Amino acid sequence: MAFFTGYEIAAAGKTTFKDEFVTAGGVDTAEVDVAGMKSRLHADLFFAGEILNVDGITGGFNFQHAWTSGFVAASAIASARL
Ligand SMILES: Cc1cc2nc3c(=O)[nH]c(=O)nc-3n(C[C@H](O)[C@H](O)[C@H](O)COP(=O)(O)OP(=O)(O)OC[C@H]3O[C@@H](n4cnc5c(N)ncnc54)[C@H](O)[C@@H]3O)c2cc1C
Predict the structure, then answer these.
(1) Is the Cβ atom of 72 under 6 angstroms away from ligand 1?
(2) Is the pLDDT of residue 6 over 80?
(3) What is the Cβ-side half-sphere exposure of residue 15, based on CA atoms within 13 angstroms?
(4) pTM of the model
(5) Number of domains in the chain
(6) Which residue has the higher pLDDT, 6 or 43?
(7) Would 62 be classed as within a structural domain?
(8) Exposure check for the chain: N or C terminus, fewer CB within 10 A?
């Protein structure tokens, strides 16, 4: 944990591509209960990250979505004790 909180990075602008990179499209969010990232169509099926139809401009929004939805899905799976 100390590595993540104490690690310092010097940033200087964008890198090689200087553009956004994310997959647009994927599983329709209307088919997912975001409270646990669980499918409304199939039992015991969970989604997280870029497989969902969620995308944002480069800058961390896609990473944040991947991490947050992954945490929510993992928490729901652990609670469900599948
Ligand atoms: C070049 C580039 C730059 C980017 N820059 C940014 C940025 O600056 N900011 C931002 O917010 N987003 C950025 N993104 C987007 C961001 O990286 C993705 O939205 C995010 O990583 C998606 O996370 P994910 O966990 O859903 O998928 P991924 O990170 O793609 O993880 C999926 C994982 O599943 C594994 N996998 C695939 N198939 C199988 C299988 N059959 N069995 C087991 N494992 C499998 C893959 O190997 C991979 O490790 C960038 C993307 C690219 C390509």
Answers:
(1) no
(2) no
(3) 6
(4) 0.82
(5) 1
(6) 43
(7) yes
(8) N
